[in-house]
Specification:
The complex is a heterodimer of chains A (352) and B (74). Chain A has a single domain, classed as Thiolase/Chalcone synthase (Peroxisomal Thiolase, Chain A, domain 1, 3-Layer(aba) Sandwich), CATH 3.40.47. Helix content of chain A is 26%, strand content 28%. Chain A has helices spanning 34-44, 58-72, 97-104, 122-135, 234-255, 273-282, 294-297, 304-312; strands at residues 3-7, 9-18, 22-24, 48-50, 80-86, 112-116, 141-149, 167-176, 182-189, 197-199, 216-217, 224-225, 230-232, 265-268, 320-329, 333-342, 345-346, 350-351. Chain A is globular, with a radius of gyration of 19 Å. The mean pLDDT of chain A is 95. Chain B has one domain (2-73): ACP-like (Non-ribosomal Peptide Synthetase Peptidyl Carrier Protein, Chain A, Orthogonal Bundle), CATH 1.10.1200.10. Helices cover 58% and strands 0% of the residues of chain B. Chain B contains 4 helices and no strands. Chain B has helices at 2-12, 34-48, 54-59, 63-73. Chain B starts with a helix and ends with a helix. Classes of the chains: A alpha/beta (352), B mainly alpha (74). Chain A binds chain B through residues 39, 43, 160, 233-236, 238-239, 242-243, 274, 278, 282, and chain B through 33-35, 37-39, 41-42, 45-46, 51-54, 57. Chain B: Residues 1-74 form the Carrier domain. Chain B: InterPro entries: ACP-like_sf, PP-bd_ACP. Chain B: It comes from Belliella alkalica. Chain B: This is Phosphopantetheine-binding protein.
């Protein structure tokens, strides 16, 4: 658990883009009875999600968010020296999507660009990487793009996952400036739990084949999926959260010499309403300091933390604000941060 | 401890107006579903400091078996 610390690096502004295409959970009854689906909506707290239409990728959502942010902040594109793209739903297996985005956004060929492949922990992980590079002092402006089309990663006939995931993309502009305060990161991983959330096929261990795309019954409840779709053992994911996340949050608070009461907003990965409720209760947090967008967008994996900030905290980040971020999931991988926001600009939500 | 265990079960599963027995097969309770399982996992962790893996949960049928498992791993 490296505890990293940065000073005078911060997020200047953020934007988010979601697909226009809205899917109402209670109407998503193609494969399961209406009463069951209503029950699932009640329990997960997810009423709506956005599904990207065929042909739209995570990178397209990020591009829309980035263009909005660049326009709103009147950013000189020539000053963007670093572009990091975070996703597990890239355009291609190669080349890296960040490189494609350098071209599509019209950035200079001198832009340093690379991808980061992590899930629900990725935004916090990526911030630590970008902050580290920006603190070196040789990067004028950094663009962190984080997008997912998770709606496509799960099979609609697997009720354990069919009603949870949605799509979105965000852009964050990061700079070095003496107005920004300190930020602290805790970064962790546990590959022994690799099977808790997994898409088995499509990589090089189990390449895609005629067999990998076949639908099959995967459990005693009759759920149907393929090896090309994600599976999740929800109760063990919850065990993982219980065992690792409250203690990681306590650790990062202690490392940052910060009390819970000093934090303006606790932004957790949006897995489902139950998980957020559990963490708020366990850590004894007032609910008005725990913003959530799970109702409107579902679980968007790594996008969920920044999407919560953009959709819920616009108008609440003037002046100096202290935020605690915590992302956790597939890997398993988890990361927490305590960071100071200084007049962070938030663009209006973009619909694509 | 058995009394406390029963209280935790009643609370977590929101069982109202009836007695539960240690021989009950709790997964057959009308209150039982995946979310009830998560609530129970959280409560057992809170009250007894025990997390129960899904593989173990699959094998456990009665409240007595759950109670014995908790005492074993505690």
């Amino acid at each position: 658990m490296p505890l990293l610390q940065f000073d005078q690096v911060g997020i200047v502004g953020m934007a988010a883009a979601v697909p226009e295409n809205k899917v109402l959970t209670r109407n998503y009854t193609h494969y399961f009875p209406e009463a069951d689906v209503a029950d699932i909506a009640d329990k997960t707290g997810i009423e709506e999600r956005r599904f990207a239409l065929e042909g739209t990728c995570a990178s397209d959502l990020c591009q829309a968010a980035a263009e909005k942010l660049i326009q709103d902040l009147d950013v000189d594109k020539a000053e963007i020296d670093l572009l990091v793209f975070v996703s597990q739903t890239p355009d291609y297996r190669m080349p890296a999507t960040s490189v494609l985005l350098q071209n599509r956004l019209g950035l200079s060929k001198q832009t340093m660009a690379f991808d980061l492949n992590l899930g629900c922990s990725a935004f916090v992980y990526a911030l630590s990487v970008v902050y580290s590079l920006v603190q070196s002092g040789h990067i004028r402006k950094a663009l962190l793009l984080d997008g997912e089309t998770r709606s496509r990663a799960y099979h609609p006939k697997d009720r354990r996952v069919a009603f949870l995931f949605g799509d979105g993309g965000i852009a964050a502009l990061i700079e070095k400036n003496s107005k920004f305060g300190k930020s602290f990161f805790s970064l962790n991983s546990d590959g022994s739990r690799e099977d808790l959330i997994k898409i088995k096929s499509g990589g090089y261990r189990f390449p895609s084949s005629a067999d990998s795309v076949k639908e099959k019954v995967i459990d005693e409840h009759g759920n149907i999926s393929t090896d090309e779709h994600g599976t999740m053992i929800g109760s063990d994911v919850f065990n993982f959260v219980i065992q690792e996340i409250p203690s990681d949050i306590k650790n990062i608070l202690s490392h940052a010499s910060t009390e819970k009461g000093d934090i303006d907003f606790f932004v957790f990965h949006q897995a489902n309403a139950f998980m957020n409720g559990y963490l708020a209760k366990k850590l004894k947090l007032p609910l008005d300091k725990v913003p959530s967008c799970i109702r409107d967008f579902g679980n968007t994996s790594s996008v969920s933390i920044p999407l919560t900030i953009v959709s819920q905290l616009q108008g609440n980040l003037e002046g100096r604000k202290k935020l605690l971020l915590s992302g956790f999931g597939v890997g398993m991988s988890w990361a927490s941060a305590v960071m100071e926001f200084q007049d962070c600009f938030i663009s209006d939500l973009v619909e694509v | 401890m058995e009394l406390k265990f029963k209280e935790v079960i009643i609370e977590a599963l929101e069982i109202e107006d009836r007695e539960i027995l240690m021989s009950d097969k709790f997964k057959e309770f009308e209150e039982w579903d995946s979310l009830a399982q998560l609530t129970l996992i959280a409560e057992l962790d809170d009250q007894f400091g025990v997390t129960i893996q899904s593989e173990d949960f699959k094998k456990i049928q009665t409240l007595q078996e759950l109670f014995d498992h908790i005492q074993k791993v505690q």
